[in-house]
Amino acid sequence: xxxxxxxxxxxxxxxxxxxxxxxxxxxxxxxxxxxxxxxxxxxxxxxxxxxxxxxxxxxxxxxxxxxxxxxxxxxxxxxxxxxxxxxxxxxxxxxxxxxxxxxxxxxxxxxxxxxxxxxxxxxxxxxxxxxxxxxxxxxxxxxxxxxxxxxxxxxxxxxxxxxxxxxxxxxxxxxxxxxxxxxxxxxxxxxxxxxxxxxxxxxxxxxxxxxxxxxxxxxxxxxxxxxxxxxxxxxxxxxxxxxxxxxxxxxxxxxxxxxxxxxxxxxxxxxxxxxxxxxxx
Length: 281
Ligand code: SAM
What we know:
Blueprint: H1 10-24, H2 28-36, H3 39-51, E1 78-83, H4 89-102, E2 107-113, H5 116-126, E3 137-141, E4 156-162, H6 171-181, E5 182-193, H7 199-221, H8 224-236, H9 240-249, E6 252-253, E7 256-259, E8 263-268, E9 273-280
Parallel strand pairs: 1-2, 1-4, 2-3, 4-5, 7-8
Antiparallel strand pairs: 5-9, 6-9, 8-9
Helix pairs in contact: 2-7, 3-4, 7-8
Bound molecules: S-adenosylmethionine (SAM).
Pfam families: Ubie_methyltran
GO molecular function: 2-methoxy-6-polyprenyl-1,4-benzoquinol methyltransferase activity
GO cellular component, one term: extrinsic component of mitochondrial inner membrane
């Protein structure tokens, strides 16, 4: 079709994906709110709180030394990598949670994204926060499938990718890079559109996405094609158990192959959105 990128060779897809996100970068927040009726905020809140239920004890502020003249040891940093982090939605939630819930500023998030437009929007946004100009947040231009070389093997405590892995030309390549850079015991969290399992709801959701989203894209962002691409990429993405299997194939330990507590994934909003978690053994 002249709309989607269905028949496009993989190499060209990356350039096209770049184009999509350049053209949507400035209207990105507006569109997310418009398309999901604001619910993406709740998905992201839930995602971050389940990826960071607590901070490992070693990352909590050391108490004041008994002898004030002794040198206080530097706290280790809890290192997060937010890939396809775009405008900083996940990164800022991680930092806020660490600070508000655990009184910790020893968490650092590096955002990696393929698109300069999104990184620029993210930088602008961070400039309005108290993390601005601190080592707590960094932006790097790079690809999930071959992460920038300064990110070493076994160096990351928490790897997140939200609504980004769907756009990767090779999901296995992105997952194996995640595995490589995580520390043993480090966690991966993937947030992505899932598949709605209830047949009635699935049909309603299909109608909504194919009819309404491109129109909304046209009205809010003046760009129907980019949003048509998003809808098609959601359709093509693996089902929840299929994606869990890809995580296992990459070496991650997951929960059982089921949804919910103790399972490899958790559905939000009937499976419109889903999160998968895994641990590097
Ligand atoms: N994580 C953010 C959020 O949840 O709001 C942004 C999600 S946005 C839908 C997808 C992002 O993935 C875009 O910023 C895009 O540039 C980025 N992206 C697409 N393919 C990528 C790749 N191969 N490597 C890194 N980033 C990529």
